[in-house]
Amino acid sequence: QMQLVESGGGLVQAGGSLRLSCAASGRTFSTYAMGWFRQAPGKERLFVAVISRNGRLIDYADSVKGRFTISRDNAKNTLYLQMNRLTPEDTAVYYCAADPSPFGVTRETDRYDHWGQGTPVTVSS
To answer: What is the DSSP secondary-structure string of 49-106?
Structure first.
């Protein structure tokens, strides 16, 4: 089993920045594509960003493109999400997830077989 633990969430004013981290253990981190998803209160869980095993393939949701940056450090078994120019619409619980498939990257939640417990992000106006 792989354990994923997110951190870095919190309360920030609109226009501010946060950096989320996701620490992985239990499996070989570098063999998984890694994604970030978010779920606002009363809404479904949505794709945010994904990065391939070696970091060469990256995909973002249109709503965060140009503001968020996903990255990973395979030596540290850690995934990151740098979030800039935050808006109240970014308020959600943010989850990291691991995709074991060797084929590229995906936005589909069904491909991810390990999930963290989430870290809440609240952006005030």
So the answer is: EEE-TTS--EEE-TTTTTTEEEEEETTTTEEEEEE-S--GGG-EEEEEEEE--SS---
Are 45 and 38 a contacting pair, CB within 8 Å? Answer: yes
The one-letter amino acid at 18: L
Residue 23 tokens read as 């620490």
**How far is C-alpha 17 from the geometric centre of its chain's CA atoms?**
15
The two tokens of residue 116 are 């963290």
List, in order, residues 6 or more apart from 104 with CB less than 8 Å away.
Answer: 33, 52, 57
Q: Give yes or no for residue 102 having a pLDDT over 90.
A: no
Q: Would you place residue 16 in the very low, low, confident or very high pLDDT band (cuts 50, 70, 90)?
A: very high
In a 3-state reduction of DSSP, which class is residue 32? coil
DSSP 48: E
* Residues 57-87 pLDDT 10s: 999 999 999 999 999 999 999 999 999 999 9
